[in-house]
Amino acid sequence: MSTMLGCRFGGVLEGSVFGLRGAVWRRVFSPPRGLCRAAFSTSTPEGSDQSASSVESSGPVPQNASETSRIGTLWDREPGGGSPTSAAVVDAILQRAQFETEALSLAGGTTGEARRRQEQARIENQIRRIMHEELPPHCRLEARDVVWVSDDLCFVGVGLLTNFAGFRYAMSRRLYRARRVAAVRDIFDRNTKDRATLQDVFKIVTDDVAAMLTSIQEPPQARLVNDYMLPANLTPLPSRQHSASSSLDAAGQENAAPTVAEQTPNDADLMTDAARFLSDQSGPLNTPHMGEFILGRHDVDFVEYLHELGIRIVPVENKTELDQMEPATIPIQQSTNHLLMVAPTAFEPNLYAAHDNYFMHDPSAVVAGLKHQPDDAEQTTSTTGAQDKLVSIRRQVLNEFAQLYYQIVQKIGARVHLFTHDKYHDAPDSVFPNNWFSTHTDLEVGECTLVLYPMKSPNRRRERRPEFLSRLHSFRRYTHVYDLTREEVSKTPRYLEGTGSLVLDRPHRTAYMAISERSDQKLARTWARVMGYEVIPFHATDGHGRPIYHTNVMMCIGTHVAVFCAESVEDSRERALILDRLRSTGHEVVTITREQMCHFCGNVLEIESRYGRPVMAMSTGAYHAFTPEQRQVLREHLDDLVHADIRTIEVVGGGGVRCSIAELM
Questions:
Q1: Close Cβ partners of 423 (under 8 Å, ≥ 6 residues apart)
Q2: What is the pLDDT of residues 296-334, one digit of tens each?
Q3: What is the dihedral of CA 451, 455, 459, 464, to 10 degrees?
Q4: pLDDT tens digit string along 58-88?
Q5: What domains sit in the chain, N to C, each tagged with a CATH number?
Q6: Strand order in the sheet with 312-316
């Protein structure tokens, strides 16, 4: 795992690609653990291709190889060689280089297990000492109700064994040694046998991963959180007379911990404290009964609270599984709860893309006569028939997209970073953001990594807008950037369009790719070598023998189930290789026909639900095109099937639900 709280959107790492002003995204990508550094500047020489049915894997790279692509920054190019938005991107990022977020969009990294154990033990020992002393009347504290994460966050269970009076008393003494304290309130459960303390139901494994019993994720056993913050000018550490740990003298030397007599107020002081803490029920939220801590939000669902912090939830069934969860046993996630989407606010058919995307239905008639029209053409009364049709299409696709968005946010419980676009962006396919970038966790590839991909259509390259890159930068997660966009301006351009070209089995580091104009086999090999993946290339065609433009329209991989259009892979050896690999990695395969593929049954996506369980998102057309038996197989491996009617986006845009969602791992 990463070495700092903030690798995942918490702070800037010195020397990282997301550096401060003057060094923004300047570091050349260093290899994930176990990868050959030579892979970052070289590739297999010309003429050394393996057959398309073979497995391309990470391995040693010949010393005499050459490679036009490289890893580095999106903007570190020769003058005139960058994208049209390069200067704007640099300016935007520089302006935000020192931007700090208080409420993290996503979390990440690990403070270090040794530090976590040390602080946890220190707090627990102090609580046990206090428990043996004379607590104020009605106060109860329990050491196992504390889960310390970092100097910035501590969870405290409040319920059966630690009551609210005891919690207030501990807060007044800054016992929990954190600037932010989340009181995890057990109000409705009160199970003395199995779920008496917070540590019985919840465990922080790393800074961005928590294990939680499934039994407390949903009502009526669900926990509610009150969020308390300490003002920035105050230290979260207890005062000396209230500390059960060692302290520093004026010279900075460590002193022995004060004795119980030295650190404990006398009975009269305790009773005065009790009278103040237990009777003060009025006044502002930062009244003395909570010390200097200020109540922010309250009664927030615990699962929702963790998602807002960006903490991944790994559901476990019992206390044994909870105790056994360690950093080394965290499963690599196939899907995520954090997504990026772009509403089609300036949608129109993309003639560039129509050249090889045969899922689009004759876009030329729709865009005829649209050139040289003002941005507000849809407000005029003298529009052409094509413009009227485009206005109607835009309204329809926005309505469809809204249905998809709310299904994902409300029914699945995913957290979506939602953007829009305008006509002046000249990026009509912005609704399909999964092609120009992908993200990867440190568990998956060794470092938190952002990959930027070369796009075939010139107007699709404009989708890499400053605000997108600035948002990714502000997360403070992706310490490494793998930039392949230089391939777009090379003498012999090559393309690899993200998770459209590469369908990823992340836990097994396998990428499946249908070879096409948008999916270059040699470039995929280089990508695989750098990322520590195997790539399985193959040839896939539609019913007219034309290449499938993107792999993700005919194939999807979930955690335990896969959808695959075997009929489109006519080479029996390639087909057998794919099926064998999918089954050997524990996937049950739902094979679909070319007709089902045309209904976007392959363009579906597994998303992690609010509770950490897999859900499959698809279009309504795809849902009904699956047979009842196929839907049953999917349900056996998924928590739910969620669908929305996006037929206009599919027919006019040539992409489905999976194309409309980019994953933020």
A1: 346, 375
A2: 999 999 999 999 998 999 999 999 999 999 999 999 999
A3: 0
A4: 443 333 333 333 344 333 333 334 444 443 4
A5: 113-249+261-309 (no CATH), 335-441+456-461+485-663 (3.75.10.10)
A6: 202-206, 209-213, 312-316
